Amino acid sequence: MKKNILKIFALIFCVSLLMVGCATVSNVKINGKDAYYKDLQYNKGQVLVVGDYLYFGNGYTASSGEGFDYNGATKTGYMSRLNLSLDLTFDEKVSDVLKPYSTPKQIEKVNDKKLVGFQKQDMYALGGYIYFASANTHKTSDMKNDYTQVSLFRMKYNGDGLKELVKNSAFKQGEGSAITIQKGSDNNYYYIIVEPADGNTFTIKTIKIGDKIGKLKTIAKDVKSYAIADENSVQKNIIYTVSSEQAQETTAVKSVDFASGEVTDLDNGNAGKTVNFVGRAGDVVFYAYQQPNSETEVYYKDLASSDSYFNAPLSERFYTSSSISDVQKAGDGYIFKTSEGALIFKQLSSKNQRLMDSSDFTDILFVENDYVYTSSSKTIKRISTIDQNIETILTLSEKEIISGQCGYDGEFIYYFSQIADVEDIENPENNENEQEKETDENYYMFRVDKNGNSQLIGKSK
């Protein structure tokens, strides 16, 4: 009788595990304890280091593409991980020539319920969870899918506890939109979501995250431009512009504390003059200033100054252009992209230095001290802001890189690409079936060190 009861309990327990999702891999230990982070962990986008493990989307599929199939994309773009403390090993049939294009044995599938490898993915670790976005699968009111929208999720480091943060809610993406996590003035962390809205404006929303998830809140509407605090900002706020009550073509500048939601009026503007925020690094904000019958130019302002007005004094003129983008701190200055796509380095009050032309790169990946890392569909490069020396880390001939989608763990740069058709001429018996290689057009995760040594780490077909 006791055995039967135990069997029933065991069956109920197994069914319960299936319903909530059971762990596919072991938990992560740091110094003998389950991994838990009081401060946010971030590795420049598409990968995440937790203890000895690297988490990543195994493959990549653009959810904005025509004929996008969510379930099909998830079959390659699921959450995986690699133990960075172990040497990579391969099947004994894999020769040294083919190893860089073969999946190591150490790759583990963490959770295959959601697509992780897709555009503009930023993964974070906080507490005992990984936070990530996935293309929205909720049906619209007319029972269709809009995969251009995203939903936010978290899961434990062993793949358990997958949960949507805001149930049945999706967030719009589009030009100028943003999704990021930042620490607030109350020392809690918040998802900040900037969504496109009607009339070329934005709506800004927040969700507190941590051991407990807060409620979704709207903290600003009818926003024309914005600049979000980053990890180096003292003022934990979002600076933004709205149309002034004085005139439609005039802007007013406000700030909102994204923890408390408190709004502060900074500058009500002057008739006919407009401010358009184009970047922020720490507490220095950059804005394009337009006044009647004059050219638009970019100015900077330190939010720590007592003057709250954005009146574009000549002493704070930064760059003669209608706009710039991707502003980041680099060494003792700032880097940014011009409207023509060139990469520029500049100190606040010095002359600008042209680092790369638009033909040299497509996207800024990240900045490390005095070096800027960039990508195109064929290359990954880095350039020194000190001597402007360009180093090409990776060049692909046959296949392409998904430019702009990367990660960085301090040693390796991670990127998505297709598997090149490489033959082991000396050992032809080691070559894969040619037909299989031709039909696998999926993009998988690779890594490359700063010496150009690359390795497939995604699990291919």
What would your notes on this structure say?
With 461 residues, this protein is mainly β. Among the domains are: 29-170, no CATH class; 175-294, no CATH class. It is built from three helices and 36 strands. It has helices at 2-20, 70-74, 434-439; strands at residues 29-30, 33-34, 37-42, 47-50, 53-57, 59-60, 79-83, 108-111, 124-127, 129-135, 150-156, 163-164, 178-183, 189-197, 201-209, 217-223, 225-228, 237-243, 251-257, 263-267, 274-281, 284-290, 297-302, 317-319, 324-330, 333-338, 343-346, 353-356, 363-368, 371-375, 379-384, 390-395, 401-408, 412-417, 443-449, 454-456. It has a five-stranded antiparallel β-sheet, with no helix packed on it. Strands 6, 33, 34, 35 and 36 form a five-stranded antiparallel β-sheet that branches. Strand 13 (178-183) and strand 14 (189-197) form a beta hairpin. The model is unreliable at 9-21 (pLDDT under 50).
Tell me briefly what this model is.
The chain is mainly beta and 461 residues long. It is 7% helix and 43% strand.
Low-confidence stretches: 9-21
> What would you call the structural class?
mainly beta
- Roughly how many Å is the radius of gyration? 24 Å
Number of helices: 3
Distance between the terminal alpha carbons, to the nearest Å?
48 Å
